[in-house]
């Protein structure tokens, strides 16, 4: 573990990561977008990290699902250990030259990897890359991301797209909760021996999937 980026030793023994968006009272009452805050937990529900989105009011309210952002992820001692950076890019298969790309740094200032959207006319597809921009894993979502009162799952696959090694799940948590708070709950399942840098990139992929497919939805209704 002495070779791990500082703070990522928490991920070393995890094969399941839970991401829970914190409910903002102002957003729930007025419908005004506020900076997103998340708790990142282990499978026992114990908080491992806390994440805060940084951007401005213009981005949040006018560019909501495609907005640029920086998400700073800190451990329980308040030390920033992961930084997720998303530039303003297109969110349409009609613009295959300018699709989504997200950079994950750990420690901040040092590249851990990237999430790159792949063009596909039917399915949501992404490639997970390491710090050298070498392809490592694929993420393939369902044809329809509305779960109709059930979880929505994005499969994590090997590069050949034949072998499934994990998944990112959007948990459906109930009509009242989703409609009135628009809160997000995700689970990430990956092999326990996956490089912790790639686990950090998977957390970034989860944030990207949330904004692209669930930000302005009723979370699967």
From TrEMBL:
Listed InterPro entries: Scramblase
Keyword tags: Calcium, Lipoprotein, Palmitate
Coiled coil: none
Highest rank taxon of the organism: Eukaryota
GO molecular function per UniProt: phospholipid scramblase activity
One Pfam entry name: Scramblase
Annotated family: Belongs to the phospholipid scramblase family.
Protein task: May mediate accelerated ATP-independent bidirectional transbilayer migration of phospholipids upon binding calcium ions that results in a loss of phospholipid asymmetry in the plasma membrane.
Name the UniProt record assigns to this protein: Phospholipid scramblase
Name of the gene this protein is made from: Plscr5
């Amino acid at each position: 573990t002495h070779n791990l980026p500082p703070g990522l030793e928490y991920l070393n023994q995890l094969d399941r990561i839970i991401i829970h968006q914190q409910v903002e009272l102002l957003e729930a009452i007025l419908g005004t977008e506020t900076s997103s805050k998340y708790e990142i937990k282990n499978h026992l529900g114990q908080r491992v990290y806390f994440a805060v989105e940084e951007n401005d009011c213009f981005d949040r309210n006018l560019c909501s699902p495609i907005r640029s952002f920086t998400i700073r992820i800190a451990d329980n001692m308040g030390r920033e250990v992961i930084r997720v950076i998303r530039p303003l890019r297109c969110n349409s298969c009609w613009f295959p030259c300018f699709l989504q790309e997200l950079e994950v740094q750990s420690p901040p200032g040092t590249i851990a990897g990237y999430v790159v959207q792949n063009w596909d006319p039917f399915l949501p597809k992404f490639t997970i890359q390491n710090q050298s921009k070498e392809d490592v894993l694929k993420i393939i979502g369902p044809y329809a991301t509305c779960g109709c009162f059930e979880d929505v799952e994005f499969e994590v696959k090997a590069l050949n797209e034949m072998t499934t090694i994990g998944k990112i799940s959007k948990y459906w948590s109930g009509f009242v909760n989703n409609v009135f708070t628009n809160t997000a709950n995700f689970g990430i399942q990956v092999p326990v021996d996956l490089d912790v840098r790639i686990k950090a990139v998977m957390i970034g992929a989860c944030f990207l999937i949330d904004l692209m497919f669930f930000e302005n939805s009723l979370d699967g209704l």
